[in-house]
Amino acid sequence: MTWLFNTAVHEAQNMTGAVVKEFAFSDDEVYLKKLGYSIGTTIGEGSYAKVKSAYSDKLQKRVAMKIIDRRSAPKDFKEKFLPRELKCMKAINHINCIKLFEIIEFEQKVYIVMEHAGHGDLLEYIKLRGAIPEDRSRVMYRQLTDAVSYLHGINIAHRDLKCENLLLDYQNNLKVSDFGFSRYFEDPGISKTFCGSAAYAAPEILQGIPYYIPLHDIWAMGVILYIMVCASMPYDDSNVKKMIRDQLEKKVTFSKSKPISNEVKDLITRILEVNVKKRYTIAQMVVHPWMNPDAPPLAADEGTTT
């Protein structure tokens, strides 16, 4: 049943003759209003959820509200992925991860009230401005490595890192968001599950080879860094089989029309390493010369790859 203010959306005249518009409100909106939330426009939409902006009377600021309708979601999502997402979000507390404020359940819907990042996502930022200068990319990438290092430190893998899931606040600080595919992992932390976007997935994941769960995030971080400094994808994902071949043949190419430093090329190449035993870890990323311009250059046996 739907709550209606004066039954329906229609126009009526008041005593002065002016036209007054009357709007219908759903049960959900009435319930959320009682809890101090005023729902605004839709700012994102996925397979089983919408994200709307809202204003919180309690917090006295705008928030983002992810609305999940259990009725339209498949059983696997409801029984496995949603509980994992909620469990992970409750545990996460880092300046570069979207903060959870509250989880509300009403009838068949789940409302996840989160921090609102006002400058959209990283992909929108790059589409609008083009490749990000390396000095600025370095700041953003440090924020990403801090966030992912924190997540892995508490045994959480994100598993859907991509530019669309990296939000920017009003000062363009990076915030990791959308923990819909996140999960806890324990040693040995091996999985065969493919989730997320193929464009950001490592070759072993795309091939269905069992992999160490945190490596799902590592490869994606290399793709993200490439996109930040090149404003393009490192591999063409329109043909996944060909993309896997290119990955396995180590075909990471850089456009000559968008000159970038040898140091960032080297870092990207070391992250997008097919051999998982040689692939850079986050600990290695943060001490790389590109991340630390004032540090000594690479040793002779670690020459720059271009």
Automatic annotation (TrEMBL):
Which keywords does this Swiss-Prot/TrEMBL entry list? Answer: ATP-binding, Developmental protein, Differentiation, Kinase, Magnesium, Metal-binding, Nucleotide-binding, Phosphoprotein, Serine/threonine-protein kinase, Spermatogenesis, Transferase, Ubl conjugation
Q: Which domain of life is it from?
A: Eukaryota
Which positions bind ATP? 66
Biological processes annotated in GO:
cell differentiation; intracellular signal transduction; microtubule cytoskeleton organization; spermatogenesis
The UniProt entry, under Pfam families, shows: Pkinase
GO: which molecular function terms? ATP binding; magnesium ion binding; tau-protein kinase activity
Q: Which family does it belong to?
A: Belongs to the protein kinase superfamily.
Q: Name one GO cellular component term.
A: cytoplasm
- Can you give the residue ranges of the Protein kinase domain? 37-291
The record's annotation in CDD domains points to: STKc_TSSK-like
InterPro entries from the UniProt entry:
Kinase-like_dom_sf (IPR011009), Prot_kinase_dom (IPR000719), Protein_kinase_ATP_BS (IPR017441), Ser/Thr_kinase_AS (IPR008271)
Name the species this protein comes from: Candidula unifasciata
This chain belongs to the protein called Protein kinase domain-containing protein
Which cofactors does the annotated protein need, by name? Mg(2+)
